[in-house]
Specification:
The protein is mainly alpha-helical. 69% of the residues lie in helices and 8% in strands.
Length: 130
């Protein structure tokens, strides 16, 4: 329930036309600062390859990512964030910061810091072997 409420609040704060999935991919690519294949991105976000292809096509159409053939394997593609994608990510972060700041103020920074290790352990347990 908390995840759904958080996603809803953040989605509403994002710049017009940007979806949470778009922001998530842009944020990931900006943080790792390396190319990834669509299959690698799908695995990272625990979505189907089709869902990731749809997200990447929309990001490509908006000019937020570069998609190129893999020079070693022509069947694969490689994805990287574009300068426009970095700008879009920054705009999204600026739009989301007030929402997150409000939540942190309401819950308390110390309580959130105390919850992070438990949430990490929960994520790791859920990501484990199926």
């Amino acid at each position: 329930m908390a995840d759904q409420l958080a996603r809803n609040r953040i989605s509403k704060a994002l710049p017009k036309g940007m979806e949470l999935s778009h922001f998530s991919v842009l944020n990931h690519l900006a943080r790792i600062n390396e190319e990834r294949s669509p299959a690698q991105l799908a695995a990272t976000f625990h979505v189907t390859r089709g869902a990731m292809t749809n997200t990447l096509n929309r990001l490509d159409w908006a000019g937020h990512v570069h998609i190129r053939p893999d020079w070693d394997d022509a069947r694969r593609k490689m994805v990287s964030i574009s300068p426009a994608g970095r700008s879009a990510r920054e705009a999204a972060i600026q739009a989301v910061v007030p929402v997150l700041s409000e939540v942190v103020a309401g819950v308390g920074e110390e309580r959130l810091r105390a919850a992070l290790p438990v949430l990490r352990m929960l994520r790791q347990a859920l990501e484990g072997p199926r």
